[in-house]
Design brief:
- The chain is α/β, with parallel strands linked by helices.
- It folds into 2 domains: about 240 residues, Rossmann fold, CATH 3.40.50.300; about 90 residues, Alpha-Beta Plaits.
- About 35% of the residues lie in helices and about 30% in strands.
- The protein has a 6-stranded mixed β-sheet with strand order 6-7-8-3-9-10, with helices on both faces. A 4-stranded antiparallel β-sheet has the order 2-1-4-5, with helices on one face.
- A hairpin with a 2-residue loop joins strand 4 and strand 5.
- Helix 3 crosses helix 4, helix 3 packs parallel to helix 5 and helix 5 packs parallel to helix 6.
């Protein structure tokens, strides 16, 4: 549904040219929820604004529903944009219009008749849970209600694609969850393709089918969300996934951690369990099998996409050969093992 081919975007600054996006290649399937995550300045907003050509890339192709937007003239591009809805971090509602007329605005601008507008807006008010607020103005709404209005407005022209630019970063955690639930609902009910950008891995974990990691303008890694959490490849991805699973070494232990093994040091390992392996007493069996004791430092178990994922950070103590055999055994049980370092 969305295909970016070789997208490059640079800006001219007082310090010279700045490359915001570097050779981005990305495919988002129909009815998929795809997330782009990155730190501030990674190029996320530039990327998503290239999809509807609010920012025009210096080179590459932007293909939406089989149409290369960069080949269209101004009139054809305006028409094609009707199939691309967009919501923003700060809602961008018109303060002088009530909820009903904010949602109706895109339809008014393209000359749709009042009868159809009334029917369409009523359906969107019902979908987004705003029927009781139809006559309220933005200053009478909560942040979550404002974002629901923005979502309804973005859906007014029945788009095939919805772009979400940090749509929940201005909201509290409870409201964020309700907005994510709404996005999942419209994805399912309307068969809508959603591309969202965020700096919060919790958003990726809760809603996305696949995700990509953007770092300094480059798409450095992408995978199905469960795979990304279970087997992150880049250091950036590992940092993001660990923060979302709320598992990390205690600071006092991290300061003592050494990168190379030596006599008298014990390995600190991170174990990642998927599916049935998360429910097996693998760690507890190491002592009886190999005379290797385990000191569990952190542990967490969660559901992602209806699959169980567990992470455990522990210290292994025993003879070096026995520890090596125990790690081989753990890996044979389809458990990911990462040696984080060594401590005394």
């Amino acid at each position: 549904m969305i295909e970016l081919q070789g997208i490059n975007k640079s800006y001219h600054t007082k310090q010279g040219a700045f490359d915001a996006l570097k050779n981005i290649n990305l495919n988002v399937a129909k009815a998929e929820i795809y997330g782009i995550i990155g730190r501030s300045g990674a190029g996320k907003s530039t990327l998503i604004r290239c999809v509807n050509l609010l920012e025009r890339p210096n080179s590459g192709k932007v293909i939406v529903d089989g149409v290369d937007l960069l080949e269209l003239n101004s009139e054809a591009l305006r028409e094609q944009r009707h199939a691309i809805g967009m919501i923003f971090q700060h809602f961008n509602l018109l303060q002088s219009r009530n909820v009903y007329h904010n949602i109706a605005l895109p339809l008014e601008l393209i000359g749709i008749g009042k009868t159809y507008i009334a029917k369409r807006v009523d359906a969107l008010l019902d979908l987004t849970g705003l029927s009781a607020h139809r006559n309220h103005y933005p200053n009478q709404l909560s942040g979550g209600q404002k974002q629901r209005v923005a979502i309804a407005r973005a859906l007014a022209t029945s788009p095939k694609v919805l772009l979400c630019d940090e749509a929940t970063s201005a909201l509290d955690p409870e409201t964020t969850q309700s907005i994510l639930d709404l996005l999942k609902q419209i994805n399912r009910e309307l068969n809508l393709t959603i591309l969202l950008i965020t700096h919060e891995m919790d958003v990726i974990k809760r809603i996305c089918d696949r995700a990509g990691i953007l770092n300094q303008g480059e798409l450095i890694e992408e995978a199905p969300v469960l795979e990304l959490f279970a087997r992150p490849k880049s250091k950036v991805a590992k940092n993001f996934t660990q923060s979302a699973l709320h598992i990390r070494l205690p600071d006092s232990l991290e300061q003592r951690l050494q990168s190379e093994p030596a006599e008298g040091l014990h390995p600190i390992v991170k174990l990642t369990f998927l599916g049935a392996a998360a429910e097996e007493p693998i760690v507890g069996s190491l002592y009886t099998r190999f005379n290797v004791s385990t000191n569990i430092l952190q542990a967490n178990l969660e559901m992602i996409h209806n699959s169980t994922i567990g992470m455990t950070i522990c210290e292994l103590q025993g003879k070096p050969g026995a520890i090596e055999h125990s790690i081989e055994y753990i890996r044979a049980q389809n458990v990911e093992v990462e040696v984080l370092g060594y401590v005394d």
